[in-house]
């Protein structure tokens, strides 16, 4: 029923598949500037500075959504409309706080699923804080709810913009698994993608992990 995206940033790629499955999607970020960017896209009045069209088209392709006749609406415009329909709100979050969202944001039962991409390892000062953040966001889930966590491996910094080098906490697979266990999740699946050398343009990450876990 309810999918919560943790640390959405100004981006939507991480909820483009989830919007087909969940009736409600809640977007969250620490920074108002990012929440405003998402609001601009949601309102669809031309104020959005990012064009999500190629992402929507690519996700449609991955999902096997095609339109043969030109007279029909394209699959990606339908996906954009679906996404706008299910996004229920865009709210502030702080994963370093034991109560990451304002009290009245979620229904009392909690969320059914959390998705979070490239957030926790980039906002945690050390591994202990990364583990605590996993515990904090876990409180938003009901027992039996799921976490889809995407993050970088071995990344000590990323370039956030010209001259802006942002320090991050490098984590490895074993640390991610141990942090999940310590924070009350059961790991269901872990996949790792190792970056080719020539992909290291904006950071020093060695790869990316994809986790599916369940709140105990
Ligand atoms: C690297 S970006 C990831 C954005 C997006 N999820 C993606 O996949 O591209 C990390 C995000 O975490 C947000 N952030 C920073 N501090 C945070 C905090 N304490 N709690 C939650 N999010 C935070 C930042 O504003 C930023 O949007």
UniProtKB/TrEMBL annotation:
Any Gene Ontology CC annotation: cytosol
GO BP annotation list: methylation
Entry's Gene Ontology molecular function annotations: phenylethanolamine N-methyltransferase activity
Gene3D superfamilies recorded: Vaccinia Virus protein VP39
Keywords: Methyltransferase, S-adenosyl-L-methionine, Signal, Transferase
InterPro entries: NNMT_TEMT_trans, SAM-dependent_MTases_sf
Stated family: Belongs to the class I-like SAM-binding methyltransferase superfamily. NNMT/PNMT/TEMT family.
Name of this protein: Phenylethanolamine N-methyltransferase
């Amino acid at each position: 029923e309810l999918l919560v995206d943790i640390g959405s940033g100004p981006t939507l790629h991480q909820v483009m598949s989830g919007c087909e499955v969940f009736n409600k999607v809640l977007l969250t970020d620490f920074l108002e500037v990012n929440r405003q960017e998402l609001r601009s896209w949601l309102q669809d009045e031309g104020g959005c500075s990012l064009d999500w069209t190629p992402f929507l088209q690519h996700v449609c392709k991955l999902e096997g959504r095609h339109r043969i006749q030109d007279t029909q609406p394209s699959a990606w415009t339908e996906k954009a409309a679906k996404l706008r329909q299910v996004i229920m709100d865009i709210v502030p979050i702080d994963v370093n706080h034991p109560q990451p969202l304002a009290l009245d944001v979620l229904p009392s039962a909690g969320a059914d699923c959390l998705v979070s991409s490239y957030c926790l390892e980039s906002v945690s000062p050390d591994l202990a804080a990364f583990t605590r953040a996993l515990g904090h966001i876990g409180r938003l889930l009901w027992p039996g709810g799921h976490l889809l966590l995407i993050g970088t491996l071995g990344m000590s910094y990323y370039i956030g913009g010209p001259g802006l080098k942002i320090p991050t906490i490098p984590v490895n697979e074993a640390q991610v698994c141990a942090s999940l266990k310590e924070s009350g999740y059961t790991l269901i699946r872990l996949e790792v993608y190792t970056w080719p050398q020539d992909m290291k343009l904006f950071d020093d990450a060695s790869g990316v992990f994809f986790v599916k876990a369940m709140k105990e």
